[in-house]
């Protein structure tokens, strides 16, 4: 009887408290899944992936940070967020974005509908903190706790906006700092718990165990937490304690490594046409990337440990993913993302949480646009206007069902090639075309982007096949098509084998996707 009274009282104190799970989203930066990107993450795989679902076919909808992160936050494709690149002029954390999209991103929706306590720490959008877009005083709507990294991923000497106040950090390794803030978050819980406990002690006797109170209160105060690490983004700086790990690591020589073929779009075929013999620079990058991920692995472990001691592990969804993938030497492109190939668009994704089956591999394709609606479903928010405005759809129910990819499964990718706004290839001064970019000396002056490296792709899973169809917006309307089942490394462009009706089918699919909005994107 007392217990019932207790619950009733708690309900009045904390409003409508129908059960909602906590959600923790961990986002890495540029972590591939096809070039051993998960090798340094053994704890994460063991504690998160193997205790839940590992996705075999998870994709980004744009292989570049800011557009992809904007999609994660909103559940909308690039053409609906308007975030086309990493610049302010391309809407990356722009004033327009702040006005039009930030208030409709997942955190404010959770707050509005379920009174979630919300927390963000780490890299947000590349231009976050820019003085012409509110600086670090700008705290995105819907966050109670805001620890946002100013600018792009970096490991030392960075500025964090702590609830809107800029704080400079010099020699504290960023990934580790994110864990420290996590512990602060834990203390926040303790503080609230103690407050309520005191008010209840006045009303009832002390015998009600703190243990019980702890659990009941916390399960009735759902939280949404995002932790976005800089790793393994360039400059790939590992924590000092990890600098000796993975000795002798070499870049992965996939069949597509240093492979130059005719069927690729313009930028890939630009000179130098092959990699040099000595690619120790790329070997070093591979090693540093893996080393920098070790601190992320420790971060995930400490979160899971903390949840366990708080007895929250069973009521918390943990999502681990990355904004996009990465390539190192594939198709003679030294290092970067921004290409439509699997290395760049496939991402790690693992989810554990309430009612999610352990140790399972999920084969059906999903993409980051689906994450926000999935998180809303985890929070038990149904049928709100917001969900219908999102382009993605929740896959929470599907991960309980499994099965092979279905005819309706499709992945859509769009990318806008960047030009060179600022730097003018000091080292590679023979390249004077302003419409190409990211040509650096450590990449042997091979450019990794250009204005006409602008493309859309669709991947279909019809008839037990997996076809990737990509069309470039260049002066050739260049098209690349791959049969991913028979040619997983995308060595053979089969566009020429496609007859008129097949071409028409895929071109129409691309057009439909490019113009879709909300529910229309699910066909
Ligand atoms: C609490 O919210 C849930 C769904 O959010 C709703 O179904 C339920 O009726 C609400 N209960 C009260 C007491 O308001
Ligand atoms: C920036 O975003 C707004 C709103 O989404 C959109 O109208 C505009 O076209 C975008 N700008 C660019 C350059 O795409
Ligand atoms: C941030 O703000 C929240 C309340 O909105 C507060 O509880 C918390 O202590 C603040 N965090 C820091 C690190 O100042
Ligand atoms: C950080 O800045 C300090 C000077 O403020 C400099 O000595 C140090 O080398 C910098 N660290 C890194 C990793 O850039
Ligand atoms: C890449 O291919 C070129 C041409 O075949 C060759 O000279 C070079 O040694 C290769 N580099 C690597 C790292 O395999
Ligand atoms: C980003 O997009 C905007 C709008 O299309 C464009 O003006 C700007 O040059 C782009 N930035 C880069 C680096 O390409
Ligand atoms: C689909 O292809 C896989 C091999 O790629 C095969 O094992 C499976 O039996 C096929 N399924 C159907 C329904 O044909
Ligand atoms: C792509 O753009 C570059 C730079 O402007 C230009 O030289 C090249 O001809 C273009 N290629 C295609 C296929 O459009
Ligand atoms: C490219 O496609 C556009 C419209 O889709 C068409 O107008 C143009 O002629 C095409 N160019 C080439 C070189 O095929
Ligand atoms: C085009 O190719 C597809 C698949 O191979 C086939 O089913 C279709 O009949 C072909 N259409 C024409 C017009 O040849």
UniProtKB/TrEMBL annotation:
Its cofactor is Ca(2+). The modification 3-oxoalanine (Cys) is found at residue 65. Residues 22-381 form the Sulfatase N-terminal domain. One of its GO terms (molecular function) is glycosaminoglycan binding. One of its GO terms (biological process) is glycosaminoglycan metabolic process. The keyword Glycoprotein applies. This is N-acetylglucosamine-6-sulfatase-like isoform X1. The lineage of its organism: Eukaryota, Metazoa, Ecdysozoa, Arthropoda, Hexapoda.
